[in-house]
């Protein structure tokens, strides 16, 4: 039985991690593409290649880092992840060359995979699976609030020099990595005994358990399929949407606002809308009820597809503005629901590996989809590239329909905990 003090400690540390990480990333990312384009002087193809390099690093590191988190220590994996991420962005912000940006993104990719899955698995182990949905939703809200706080900070720092926001955020993440070992407890996880720590055998055993989980839980096939098409559509859209604004629209002349300030306003309003939407979902949706969770994911991702297509085809600035806000809101609302979907369909022993597998599949999608969409943007138009990115998301609806069929067949209707026979068969 978990003590209340232990739950509160883990819950507080998780929110601290999410909050600082979100603040730092907001400071860095609000103007990051502008920094890469105007200071590092990357062309559209190089911008896409940076994203492809990042996702390749994520792909190669996902399973090994997930296994480390499951076999050795989830806390250690998270700490290493934040340190690598901070160093990577310090390199990018202090050395404005294409090679330095690539290397920095490789370090960030490895660091992100150390955090991804391990952080979620750690907090679930510490507080109990029954609290996962609400914790992820609250963490998402904290992340949105801190992200909103970071936007004006980024714009103010960027008015000095465009690399200052990148360096500032990098230092914050590095400091977080240095502090976590002193405040992050790990009481709910039992690592593999030292005499059994054969890395290759442990990796094989963890992957076997994860594969066995897929055979026992057909819902994971739907999760992995949906993740693939999320990845295929997201990379090109994320790397080219600001270029679409700059090339295909004229910013309104209001109070002498520069494009940098406009992008800050767009991000800020998007964050406020995301916070409101997540709170609405948190209040109205029963995350422990499988049909309600899947219905919400289906509706949200349908609206995401419509918003992406609307942004690609918009004929004026204001329509594009509404559409890009719609994309951000739907993504923000979907994220905690998706994490809950994964959590409640994976056994504790292999949960970090399952999360890492979804990260790897997402990276495969982005590696495949990003350059293809970028090529269309280079050869045809940015509008055509964004349309293609939007259409790549559409097959995700098939996997949600498949999940509904599985529920109707009686698989995991409660979505809370795992059937006893699953844990027995894995062992």
From TrEMBL:
Keywords: Membrane, Transmembrane, Transmembrane helix. Residues 1-406 form the Major facilitator superfamily (MFS) profile domain. The keyword Protein biosynthesis does not apply. It is found in: Cell membrane. Its main location: membrane. It comes from the Bacteria. The chain crosses the membrane at residues 12-35, 47-72, 79-103, 164-184, 214-233, 253-281, 382-401. It is a multi-pass membrane protein. InterPro entries: MFS, MFS_DHA3_Transporter, MFS_dom, MFS_trans_sf. It holds the Pfam family MFS_1. This is Tetracycline efflux MFS transporter TetA(P). It comes from Ktedonobacter robiniae.
